[in-house]
């Protein structure tokens, strides 16, 4: 047995987990643990097979049965994904079992020695401790992060939508790339809405990032001027929009910008500005379309976001500017540089060098900014594309996805939008992470 231990041990362990360790190497504890693992798996194999089969079929339509007894496709998909994760973990352990059997078999064949139970436990405590310690976290990430992400992606390949394919009344079917084709087909209503919304989302993210950054830069430069007195008081005032919850302030702004009864509209009426605009032909009625005209609504969104977002960059830029060495500016003054030249050739390059990663991060955040649009306009006003697609003229991809998923329950198209957003935003997140010191040096 010893002469061919390197062959017999992995062969036996491939036939049944732990068998080679028990029969050939006499490693009873290790072999028993591996054998128990396979026994538990085999006892639940029927349930796992049924769950995986449900993932493949997504159930059978049975209108003759009561609703509570019909197949629920969404639950079957989730159960199937969890079963797949369990099967993958078992396959990994099965491979580890064979590799360990081959390694220990070679050792026994060459030296006649085998790993004792004490050595096995010591090895678990030393070399395998990190893997054992990380295994609960890996399991949690698999079941509570990876499975929901894969589940959300798989919805894009189904017809999971109202009104004909909503469990438990109806089953869901796999449709492959059909939803992607519908969203990308030229001339289609959804494709036109998707293109329009994608362009506005990119414009929204870019303009929000630039306006808040340079708005914060302008205020920081102004407050850094030594001639400004009580600069701390002004800083405190300018920080207030950032300190108050954004959702609350967006609701307040929605009332302020009410075209008929809002405070801003009333003030303009008192100043006869509304009447003057009507005489000029700009307005057709006493109501000012702050949020009811598509172009005006987009402008108001950008201005309100500027009011909410510039304090963040103001505080960050102020901190960076205070850490800049004074001798550089003194040398520039001696060389005859004025304030604009010092800003252009010294301050701005140093600021951009340190804040460019944060600007990229801000851009990716604004791509995902749900509340900044939804709490102010709810994606309105509507237009000819809204009917059938539910995409308002100020909807971003995030707010449109929310409407499709929670207002109209067209989950498959919402999943397609989520995938597209991930493809666009993931490179920015990876780029920012790759620039961190911990990633480059392999340390935390």
- Dominant shape: flat
N-to-C CA distance: 48 Å
- Number of DSSP-assigned strands: 0
What structural class results from the helix and strand content? Answer: mainly alpha
Specify the CATH class of the largest domain: Mainly Alpha
Q: CATH homologous superfamily of the largest domain - what is it?
A: MetI-like
Percent of residues in beta strands?
A: under 5%
CATH architecture of the largest domain: Orthogonal Bundle
Percent helix: over 70%
Number of domains: 2
Here the CATH topology of the largest domain equals MetI-like fold
Biggest sheet descriptor? none
- Give, in order, the helices and strands: HHHHHHHHHHHHHHHHHHHHH
Characterise the protein shown here:
With 444 residues, the protein is mainly α. It folds into two domains: 5-176, no CATH class; 183-441, MetI-like (MetI-like fold, Orthogonal Bundle). The protein is 72% helix and 0% strand. The chain has helices at 5-15, 19-23, 28-43, 45-57, 73-111, 117-126, 129-154, 178-184, 189-224, 231-243, 246-256, 263-270, 273-279, 294-322, 326-334, 339-367, 371-377, 386-389, 397-407, 411-434, 437-441. Helix 16 (339-367) packs antiparallel against helix 20. The radius of gyration is 32 Å and the shape is flat. The two termini are 48 Å apart.
Record keyword descriptors for this entry:
444 residues; mainly alpha; MetI-like fold; 2 domains; 21 helices; 0% strand
